[in-house]
Design a protein that fits this description.
heterodimer, A: 257 residues, alpha+beta, Alpha-Beta Plaits, 2 domains, three-stranded mixed β-sheet, 9 strands, elongated, B: 401 residues, mainly alpha, Formate dehydrogenase/DMSO reductase fold
Chain lengths: 257, 401
C-alpha cells in the first residue's frame, strides 16, 4: 500500500523540528541561518513558511504520477510502490528537465558544486523500507505532520474538515492535484497564500507528453513507407521519361514507349 | 578555393579573423571557468531558471538552424528535385556542423557531462528528453554518413564510397524521420508545463509549430548560407534554386502563420496579443521578424528575384524563429517563475565561441573538401544533370550527397 504524509497547518506550531530532522536524515547542514530561510533549496529540502500566525510546510509532494520521474531521460528519478519519489545521482546526467517539468518547482540543484546533484525530499525511502515513518513525521511534537496509509490519511483529513466547520479551507490539497500526491495538506487560509497553486491540472501531467510520444512507434514505419513510396514514384517517373526518350532501349527492357 | 579570389577579401578576412580570435579567447576562458568552478559560477541559472541560453540558443536554435539538412535531402533524394542538387553539399555540411556543435554545447550545459552516454543504457521511453537524446545521437550519425562521401571523394576511397552510396536512400529516409521526430519533440518537451509557460507559447500544437518552423528555418538557412558563401568564397550564386526555396518558404510560413493564428483564437489567447507587457512585445517581435516582414518581402516577385532581397528575408526568418525559441524557453517562463533571466558573460562567451567555431569549421571544410559543385571535376554541370545523362551515371552522381 502507498504511504503518505498529512500536514495539518492548524496544528503546526512552527517549531521547525521537521526541518532539522530532515537535514539530519539527509546529512545536510542546519543552523540558525538556514532555519531562517523560508524557501526550499539544495540544502533545505523542507521548510516551514510563516505568514502572521499561520504556518505552512513545503516539501516534495511525491506525486502519484510524478512529472520529474516521467521526464527523466535516464530514470534517475523513480516513483516507488511505497510512495516516495527517489533519486539516484549515479544515473543523473544533469539535464535538469525535472526542475523545469515539476509543477511545484520542487527539485533544486547544487549550483555551486562542480558535478551537482538534484536535491529534493524523497520521503525517507530507507526509513520507509525498514517500516519506519519519515524523519519529519517522527519528530513532529504536535502531530501536524502525520505519516500513514494514503487512503487512511485522506479519510482522516476529510473527517477533520467535516468535524470543524469553518476551521479549514474545504480542500485537501494533494487529493486530486496533478492526479494525486503522497503529501496531503490542510489549511485554514487559502493555499495560494503560501504559493500553492490551486489551478494545477487534476490529471496526471505525464500524459501531456506521453500521448505524443506514444505515437512514435506507429509513426516510424508509416513515415518510412510514405517517404519510400514518394521516392519510388518520383524516380520511376524519371525512368519512364528516360525510356520514352530512347525507344530502342525501352524495347530491350520490354517496355512500350 | 582560396579566399583571396575576391578583391575585398583580405581586409574583411582580417577583421573577421580578429573577431574570431577574440571570441575564441573569451570562450576558452569561459570554458575554464565552467569546468573548474561549475554551473553556479559560470551561469545566471538558478533553481527558478534551470535552463538558460545554452539550452535555448545552443540546443533549441542549434537544432533548428541545422534543419536545412533534412529538408534539402528530402527535396533532392526523395522528391527528386534535381535543380537543388547543386546546393546540397554545403547544406549537409551546415547541418552536420550544427549537430556537432549542439553536442559540444550539451557538454557545457549538462551538470554531469561524463554521464551523457547514460540514455544509451538507462532508457526511459516516457521521457521526451530520452527520445530527443536518441534521435540527435542517431541523426548525427546519419549526417556523418551523408557527409562522408565528400571526405571519401577527397581521398579517393572508392570502396567505402560505394557502400555509402548504396545505402543512401534508406539513410536519407532515416534522416528525415529522425529529424521530424526530434525537431517536433523539442516542442513536446514543453507540453508538460501548461501552468508554467505563458499562453502565447504553451499550446498542444507546440510539436507541430516546432516542426513547421524548423522547415522554414531550414529553407531560410540554406538561402542565407548560399548567399554568404557566394559572397565570401566568390562563388556563382545559384539564384534560380534560391528563388524556388523562397517560394516554398512563403508557403511554409503561410501555413505556419495560419495555424498560429487559429491556435491563438481557439485557445482564447488572441486578446493577450494587445495587452501590453514584456511578453507581448517579444511575441510581436517574433511574429514581425519571423513571419510578417518575410512574407511581405517574399510575396513580391521583385524581392524574390533579387539576391539581396532573398538574403534579407532569409535573415529575418532566422532571427524571427531564434526569437521564437528564446521566447518559448525563456520569456515564457519569466511570468510564472517571477524571475528575469539574462545570461552571464561566460554563457554568452561559450555561445559566441561555438558560433565562431561553426563559421571557422565551415570555412575550413570549404577550403579542403569538395563542398561546392565547381570543385567537382568529375561532376560537370551537376545543376543541369537531367534526363540526358544515362541513369546509372546519374544515380552515382547524385548519390552520397
Amino acid at each position: 500500500m502507498s504511504k503518505a504524509l498529512l500536514y495539518d497547518s492548524t496544528i503546526c506550531i512552527g517549531c521547525k523540528q521537521c526541518e532539522q530532522a530532515c537535514a539530519g536524515q539527509n546529512k545536510l547542514p542546519y543552523d540558525d541561518t538556514i532555519a531562517a530561510e523560508e524557501h526550499q533549496s539544495a540544502h533545505k529540502l523542507t521548510c516551514i513558511l510563516t505568514r502572521g500566525d499561520k504556518f505552512m510546510r513545503r516539501l516534495c509532494m511525491n506525486c502519484k504520477e510524478p512529472s520529474c520521474a516521467s521526464v527523466c531521460p535516464v530514470g534517475a528519478l523513480q516513483k516507488t510502490a511505497l510512495g516516495p519519489v527517489t533519486y539516484d545521482p549515479s544515473k543523473c546526467m544533469g539535464c535538469r528537465y525535472c526542475m523545469v517539468a515539476c509543477p511545484f518547482s520542487v527539485p533544486k540543484y547544487e549550483w555551486d558544486k562542480l558535478f551537482p546533484k538534484v536535491q529534493k525530499c524523497t520521503m525517507c525511502p530507507d526509513r520507509l523500507a525498514q517500516g519506519k515513518q519519515t524523519a519529519c513525521a517522527e519528530i513532529c511534537p504536535t502531530g501536524a505532520t502525520k505519516f500513514g496509509e494514503r487512503d487512511d490519511l485522506i479519510a482522516e483529513a476529510q473527517q477533520r474538515i467535516r468535524d470543524n466547520p469553518g476551521k479549514y479551507v474545504d480542500h485537501v490539497y494533494g487529493l486530486n492535484e496533478v492526479g494525486g500526491t503522497s503529501v496531503l495538506l490542510l489549511s485554514a487560509v487559502p493555499f495560494e497564500t503560501f504559493g500553492y497553486r490551486t489551478d494545477v491540472s487534476k490529471d496526471p501531467m505525464p500524459m501531456l507528453t506521453y500521448q505524443v510520444l506514444s505515437k512514435i512507434p506507429e509513426f516510424i514505419p508509416l513515415g518510412g513507407m510514405v517517404l519510400g513510396g514518394i521516392w519510388w514514384i518520383t524516380h520511376r517517373r524519371e525512368e519512364v521519361a528516360l525510356a520514352e526518350s530512347k525507344p530502342a532501349a525501352a524495347k530491350k527492357n520490354g517496355r512500350k514507349p | 578555393m582560396s579566399v583571396s579570389k575576391t578583391p575585398a577579401a583580405p581586409i574583411r578576412f582580417t577583421f573577421w579573423k580578429l573577431v574570431f580570435f577574440f571570441l575564441m579567447a573569451a570562450g576558452l576562458y569561459a570554458t575554464f571557468v565552467r569546468f573548474t568552478r561549475g554551473l553556479g559560477a559560470s551561469t545566471h541559472l538558478s533553481d527558478q531558471f534551470p535552463w538558460g541560453i545554452w539550452i535555448s540558443f545552443d540546443v533549441l536554435c542549434g537544432v533548428m538552424l541545422a534543419a536545412g539538412g533534412f529538408t534539402l535531402t528530402a527535396a533532392v533524394h526523395i522528391l527528386n528535385i534535381k535543380r537543388m542538387h547543386s546546393i546540397i553539399r554545403p547544406t549537409i555540411l551546415t547541418a552536420f556542423l550544427g549537430y556537432l556543435l549542439v553536442c559540444v554545447a550539451l557538454m557545457y550545459d549538462l551538470g554531469r557531462p561524463y554521464n551523457i552516454w547514460h540514455p544509451l543504457i538507462m532508457r526511459n521511453p516516457h521521457s521526451v528528453m530520452f527520445e530527443v537524446a536518441y534521435c540527435v545521437m542517431l541523426y548525427t550519425t546519419v549526417l556523418a554518413l551523408e557527409f562522408s562521401p565528400i571526405v571519401l571523394e577527397r581521398f579517393n576511397l572508392q570502396k567505402p564510397l560505394k557502400v555509402v552510396r548504396a545505402i543512401l536512400i534508406p539513410l536519407v529516409i532515416c534522416g528525415v524521420i529522425l529529424s521530424t521526430l526530434h525537431q517536433s519533440s523539442l516542442g513536446t518537451l514543453y507540453l508538460i508545463v501548461p501552468e508554467k509557460l505563458h499562453p502565447f507559447w504553451y499550446t498542444p500544437l507546440l510539436p507541430v509549430f516546432f516542426f513547421l518552423s524548423a522547415i522554414a528555418v531550414g529553407l531560410a538557412m540554406t538561402i542565407f548560407e548560399s548567399s554568404l558563401s557566394s559572397r565570401h568564397f566568390g562563388l556563382q550564386l545559384e539564384l534560380p534554386v534560391l528563388q524556388e526555396l523562397g517560394r516554398v518558404l512563403v508557403v511554409v510560413l503561410g501555413i505556419y502563420a495560419i495555424l498560429r493564428l487559429e491556435d491563438l483564437w481557439n485557445r482564447g489567447a488572441l486578446s493577450l496579443t494587445v495587452s501590453p507587457g514584456h511578453e507581448m512585445y517579444l511575441f510581436w517581435l517574433e511574429i514581425a521578424l519571423g513571419i510578417a516582414f518575410p512574407l511581405i518581402l517574399l510575396l513580391q516577385p521583385r524581392v524574390r528575384s533579387n539576391p539581396d532581397g532573398l538574403y534579407l528575408a532569409a535573415v529575418l526568418v532566422v532571427l524571427g524563429f531564434i526569437t521564437n525559441r528564446m521566447n518559448v524557453s525563456i520569456t515564457g517562463f519569466e511570468g510564472s517563475t517571477g524571475v528575469r533571466y539574462f545570461p552571464k558573460w561566460t554563457e554568452l562567451a561559450v555561445t559566441g565561441m561555438i558560433i565562431a567555431g561553426g563559421f571557422a569549421l565551415f570555412g575550413l571544410a570549404v577550403q579542403y573538401l569538395p563542398i561546392f559543385p565547381r570543385e567537382h571535376l568529375l561532376e560537370p554541370a551537376v545543376a543541369d544533370a537531367d534526363r540526358t545523362v544515362p541513369k546509372m551515371l546519374q544515380v552515382v552522381e547524385n548519390a552520397g550527397d
